[in-house]
Automatic annotation (TrEMBL):
It comes from Candidatus Lloydbacteria bacterium RIFOXYC12_FULL_46_25. PANTHER family: MUR LIGASE FAMILY MEMBER (PTHR23135), UDP-N-ACETYLMURAMOYL-L-ALANYL-D-GLUTAMATE--2,6-DIAMINOPIMELATE LIGASE MURE HOMOLOG, CHLOROPLASTIC (PTHR23135:SF4). The keyword Isomerase does not apply. InterPro entries: Folylpolyglutamate_synth_CS, Mur-like_cat_sf, Mur_ligase_C, Mur_ligase_C_dom_sf, Mur_ligase_cen, UDP-N-AcMur-Glu-dNH2Pim_ligase. GO terms for cellular component: cytoplasm. This is UDP-N-acetylmuramoyl-L-alanyl-D-glutamate--2, 6-diaminopimelate ligase. Pfam families: Mur_ligase_C, Mur_ligase_M. The lineage of its organism: Bacteria, Candidatus Lloydiibacteriota. Pathway: Cell wall biogenesis; peptidoglycan biosynthesis. PROSITE patterns: FOLYLPOLYGLU_SYNT_1. GO terms for molecular function: ATP binding; tetrahydrofolylpolyglutamate synthase activity. It is found in: Cytoplasm. GO terms for biological process: cell division; cell wall organization; peptidoglycan biosynthetic process; regulation of cell shape. Keywords: ATP-binding, Cell cycle, Cell division, Cell shape, Cell wall biogenesis/degradation, Cytoplasm, Ligase, Membrane, Nucleotide-binding, Peptidoglycan synthesis, Transmembrane, Transmembrane helix.
Length: 418
């Protein structure tokens, strides 16, 4: 219905009325569900990378402290003891979804709700009329540029989320920002917020490899089996706000230690093989490089592609270049082509690969199987499967959805191999 109306209305008029349409939807949602955020401690988490990991770590810290929580994010919709996998292929659904989620959290006796907040959601005012107690800003790098029009507009969409915090009726309105990011000060300088920063420099001597993190937080040792320097930053973001909330350092340390894995985020797939197999959602140049750096001591066999549908075409050759820098073998494959020709997508990634010869296998299952076979033959290898993480579908032309899970496919192909 809405798509038909959009086709009938001239674009200049559409650009004028659509923001008001989405604003009114947000307002009506809050009215219908009686402004449930006012009955909860609501924490937003935003940034280009690390939203999901920070959200899950913070949730475990709050649960370790005895709080009943709700989580809305890329991985799942959790309300108290109810846990549903997010199959919507969007982090922050619209159409009253967020307000209904918050009302359900109140009804189920939750005290805290953690919401991943996205720039795409902010464009449609999905964060409006949510009274936040805090917002954690993880980092910012170029993403969704075609959708927003420029990096500056993308950044402004993130700042719009922070301004929603500033308008909140809650007393403290903590703006918790990663001071290691160049854009952090923009968030910390907003009026009507309580600025709080965190930095890897605050964590004492931070030790991080592919399976372990050790740091110090307020003179308390914190250890994690998540691995990766980027996860050390995510831990500090979650811990910093938890401490402001009054959670004890003991419970913070326990909550971090209890976070054994985060689905689709540097997730290890183990079926008895002798080499690491990692599935990760990394789909931006920065996140891809962070994963590859973490496994730099291995001979990395890398399976990657890129989303179609005109989404962030600029990053395709950059990701190819990063793969060339860190990967012993590069296997390019289908990801989510939408209505784009997958062969053309892979050609654009290949344009960034100057010296090495990538292997192109369009069928994603065959690409994963080939990577596993290579790793079995090559000592000190690691198979890094990136781009989809827990994504439940491969999106094809005309809105087709093929059920999919990189983790299940990797397990199935490993079982055949061993």
């Amino acid at each position: 219905m809405l798509s038909t109306i959009k086709k009938l209305i001239p674009r200049p008029i559409l650009r004028t009325i659509m923001p008001m349409y989405h604003f009114m939807l947000a307002l009506f949602g809050a009215l219908i569900y009686r402004f449930p955020s006012q009955r909860l401690i609501v924490i937003g988490v935003t940034g280009t990378k690390g939203k999901t990991s920070t959200t899950e770590i913070l949730n475990n810290i709050l649960e370790a402290a005895g709080h009943r929580t709700a989580v809305l994010g890329t991985l799942r919709f959790k309300v108290g003891d109810r846990n549903l996998r997010n199959l919507k292929k969007m982090t922050m659904p619209g159409r009253f979804f967020v307000q209904k989620f918050l009302r359900d959290a109140v009804s189920e006796g939750c005290t805290h709700a953690i919401i991943e907040m996205t720039s795409e959601g902010a464009k449609q005012f999905r964060q409006r009329f949510i009274d936040m107690d805090a917002l954690i800003f993880t980092n910012l790098s170029p993403e969704h540029i075609e959708s927003h029009g420029s990096y500056e507009k993308y950044r402004d969409a993130k700042l719009a989320i922070a301004r929603t915090l500033a308008r909140s009726s809650k007393p403290y309105r903590y703006m918790v920002a990663n001071a290691d990011d160049k854009e952090a000060q923009l968030f910390l300088d907003l009026k009507n917020i309580t600025p709080v920063s965190y930095s890897l420099l605050d964590g004492g001597k931070v030790e991080a490899n592919e399976t372990h993190i050790a740091l110090t937080f307020h003179n308390t040792p914190i250890t994690s089996s998540l691995g990766g320097m980027f996860n050390a930053s995510n831990i500090l973001g979650a811990a910093t706000y938890a401490e402001k909330l009054g959670v004890s350092l003991e419970h913070i340390a326990k909550g971090v230690a209890d976070t054994k894995r985060i689905e689709g985020r540097m997730e290890r797939i183990t079926e008895g093989q002798t080499f690491p197999v990692i599935v990760d959602y990394a789909h931006t140049p920065d996140s891809l490089e962070a994963i590859y750096k973490t496994f730099a001591e291995h001979k990395n066999i890398c399976v990657l592609g890129n989303t179609g549908g005109g989404r962030d075409k600029w990053k395709r050759p950059i990701m190819g270049n990063i793969a060339e820098k860190y990967c012993t073998e590069i296997i390019l494959t289908n990801e989510d082509p939408y209505d784009e020709d997958p062969v053309e997508i892979l050609k654009e990634i290949s344009a960034g690969i100057k010296e090495k010869q990538p292997t192109i296998i369009l069928d994603r299952r065959e690409a994963i199987a080939h990577a596993l076979l290579l790793a079995q033959k090559e000592k000190h290898s690691a198979v890094l499967i990136t781009g989809k993480g827990t994504d439940p579908f491969i999106m094809g032309p005309n809105g087709t959805k093929t059920p999919w899970d990189d983790r299940d496919v990797a397990r199935e192909e490993l079982t055949k191999l061993l």
